[in-house]
Amino acid sequence: MLALPLQVIDNFLLQYNVGQALLAIFILSALAALPLKSQRVYAMQFLGFGLLFLLTPQSMLAKPHWKFLGIALLVLAPMVYITAKR
């Protein structure tokens, strides 16, 4: 009984790679932090997801442009943190 829903979920998830899943989680976490209105929270998210994109093995990401997104997020994180108001 439990195998059928798991097969449906598995077939759905096989269409996507880890980079796409990380990007979806990043967008959802940015939307979740919107009510806080804190640039420092966004900076921490940029830093965390930048590290995730860089440290994820290339074989799981499927394309190298996810690594460039990680580098961009790591460059952007300190700038957003410094420009945040106290």
TrEMBL record:
Transmembrane segments: 12-34, 41-60, 66-84
DUF8006 domain location: 4-86
UniProt keyword annotations, A-Z: Membrane, Transmembrane, Transmembrane helix
InterPro entries assigned to the protein according to its UniProt record, in alphabetical order: DUF8006 (IPR058319)
Name of the protein this chain belongs to: DUF8006 domain-containing protein
Organism: Halorientalis regularis
